[in-house]
Amino acid sequence: MRVVLAKSAGFCFGVKRATNMAFEAAESNARICSLGPIIHSPQLVERLERKGVSVVREVDEIEGRAVIIRSHGVNAEVLDQIKARSLCVVDATCPFVQKAQEHAAQLSAEGYTVVIVGEPEHPEVAGIFSYARQGDAFVVENPKEAAALSPCKKIGVVAQTTQSYDNFRDIVTLCLDKAKELRVYNTICNATTVRQEEAKLIADQVELMLVVGGFNSANTTRLAHICAQSQNRTHHVETAEELKAEWFSGIETVGVTAGASTPQWIIDEVLERIENMGK
Amino acid sequence: MRVVLAKSAGFCFGVKRATNMAFEAAESNARICSLGPIIHSPQLVERLERKGVSVVREVDEIEGRAVIIRSHGVNAEVLDQIKARSLCVVDATCPFVQKAQEHAAQLSAEGYTVVIVGEPEHPEVAGIFSYARQGDAFVVENPKEAAALSPCKKIGVVAQTTQSYDNFRDIVTLCLDKAKELRVYNTICNATTVRQEEAKLIADQVELMLVVGGFNSANTTRLAHICAQSQNRTHHVETAEELKAEWFSGIETVGVTAGASTPQWIIDEVLERIENMGK
Fold first, then answer.
1. Strand pairing partners for A182?
2. What is the pLDDT of residues B146-203, one digit of tens each?
3. What is the pLDDT at residue B278?
4. B123–chain A nearest CA distance, Å
5. CB neighbour burial string for A153-168, b if at least 16 within 10 angstroms, e if fewer
6. What is the pLDDT of residues A166-224, one digit of tens each?
C-alpha cells in the first residue's frame, strides 16, 4: 500500500507557536491555566493538563494563576477584564489573528462599518468582532448575508484567517455595491489555502483519503469536506484508534492530511497504524 | 408621432457648472481663454468663442490672459505651470473629478499602488493619473489589463467618473487577487449610470432612438452604443441639421436622449425638427 502524506499536514505557524508557548509556560509556572482549550485538539489539551495546564472557561475561574490566551485570541472585553485584575498573561494569540483584530479596531475607529467575513460562532471571529466596537460591525458568513447589508458610506472588511478565498472575494464584491469607499484587509492565512489545495490534489489521485484532526476543529472539518468532494472514500478521524481495517480492503493508495491543530505525534500514530494494516 | 425625451438628457451637474463659470468669466474678463475645449460640444465652444473665450492647447499660448480649467480637469504638472506663472485661473474642474484627483493623490502619498479604472487617452483620466505621482500608478481599462497587474502589497483604486459600474466592479475584484490590502473609492458619478439606464429603458420601447451630442464626447458615444444594443434604429447626431426624413418614415415612437455635454438649445432644436418631420 502506498501512502501519500500531505507536506502541509498538521500544525500551522500560529498553532505551533501557541503550543510551544504553552509547554514553556507549563515548565516555568507552578500555577497556570488556559482560557478555553489552547487549540482544537483534545489530545494535546490532555497532554498539557498532565503538565498542570488546566482549562478554564471564565475569567472568574483563573484565581491568581497565570493565564494563557489561546491561538484564536479572546474578546477585547475579556482581555480588559484580565488586565484589570493584573493577571500574568501568556498571550499565544496567533499573530495573523492579532493583525485581523488590529485592523478591525482601526477600521472601526476610522468610522468604517466593519464587515468580518467568517463563522459567527467561531471564537476567533467573536474575538475580531469585539475589537470593532466603536461603530457598526457585522459578521457575514456568505454572499446572501452580504447582499442583505444596508448601503453605507464606508465599509471596511477583514476575514477570519481560515476563510476560503472564494467566499471572501464574493462578499467583498457585494460590499463594493453598498459603499462609496471600501477598504479591505485580506487577513486570510495562506497556510489554510495551501493545505486545502494540496489535500484536494492528493484526494484526486488516491483510493482512500484520511483527514486527521479534532472533531471540534473547524478547519479540519472543512478539510474533510473538501476531500470528500473529490474522493467519496474520505474519513475524518481524530486518532489512530478510529481507523477500521475494512476501509483498507483492496486499497492500494492512501492519502493523509491533517488540520492546523493536529499534533505531529497523532499523525505519526496514524501513519504507523496504516503501515500495520498492510501487513 | 410620439416623442419620449429622457429626463436625464443633457448637461450633468459638472458640465452645467463649468459652462456657467465660463459664460460668467466671459462677461467679466476682456482677455480670457480655455485650456482645451471647455466641454465636448463644438457648438457650445463656438458660442463661447463668439463671447471672446478662445481655446488654447498649451500653457505657453495663454499669454497674460485669464485661463479657464475645463470640467475634465488638467494634469497636476500643468496646474503647477499655471500657478508658477501667477496666471488668473477660473477652475471649472468638475467637483467629482476633483475628488477622484484628490483620492489618487492621497492613495499615492500613503504608499498604495494606484489603479485608475478608465480610458488611458481621456483627458480626465490623464489628469487623475498625474496626481498619483508619488509611486506606482496604472490606468486599467478592462479586466484583462487588471488580471495582468503584478501582485503588490497595497492597491488603491479610483475610477473615471463616467465609467460603467460593471467594468469597475470586475476590475476591483481582480485587484483584490493581487494585494493584501485594497482601498477603493467609487468615484463613478451617478448621473452617468442614471442616464445610461434611462436611455436603455427608452430605447427598448421606441421604434427609433436619437442620441444627441458631440462626436468627440466619450459619454455620448457610449450612450449611443448602449441604445444601439436595444434598438438597431439608433442614430448619434450632433445637431438637428443631421436628422434625415427617411429615418422617420413609418415610425410612430421616437426616443431622444443626450450626452452630459449637450446644450439644452441643441436638444430643443432636435425636438423641434422631429415635430416638423411629422407634418
1. A155, B184
2. 999 999 999 999 999 988 899 999 999 999 999 999 999 999 998 988 999 999 999 9
3. 61
4. 23
5. ebbbbbbbbbbbbebb
6. 999 999 999 999 999 999 999 999 898 899 999 999 999 999 999 999 998 888 998 99
pLDDT attached to residue A39:
86
Distance of CA B57 to the CA centre of its chain: 18
The pTM (predicted TM-score) of the whole model is 0.85
Instruction: Please list the residue range(s) of chain A that carry CATH number 3.40.1010.20.
Output: 2-10+191-277, 96-188
Q: Look up A77 and say whether it is catalytic.
A: no
Tell me which CATH code domain A96-188 carries. Answer: 3.40.1010.20
In the structure grid, which three cell numbers stand for residue A250, read together? 483492496
Complex ipTM value: 0.84
| Chain B residues whose beta carbon lies within 8 Å of the beta carbon of residue A181 | 183-186
Question: What's the one-letter identity of residue B12?
Answer: C
> What residue has cell string 459638472?
B14
Q: Given the C-alpha cell 484526494, which residue does it identify?
A: A203
Residue B192 and residue B275: Cα distance in Å, rounded? 28
On chain A, the residues whose CB falls within 8 A of the CB of B96 are: none
- Bigger pLDDT: A278 or A137? A137
**Start-end ranges of CATH 3.40.50.11270 in chain B?**
13-93
Interface of B with A in 12-51 (CB under 8 A): none
Helix, strand, or coil (residue B266):
helix
Q: Does A190 touch chain B if contact means CB atoms closer than 8 Å?
A: no
Q: Which positions in chain A touch B175 (Cβ < 8 Å)?
A: none
Q: Select the residue of A172, A177, A181 nearest B176 (Cβ to Cβ).
A: A172
Q: Which CATH number is associated with domain A13-93?
A: 3.40.50.11270
What are the distances in angstroms from CA B124 to CA A95, A105, A218, B90, B131? 43, 36, 49, 17, 11
> Could you say which residues of chain B have pLDDT below 50?
none
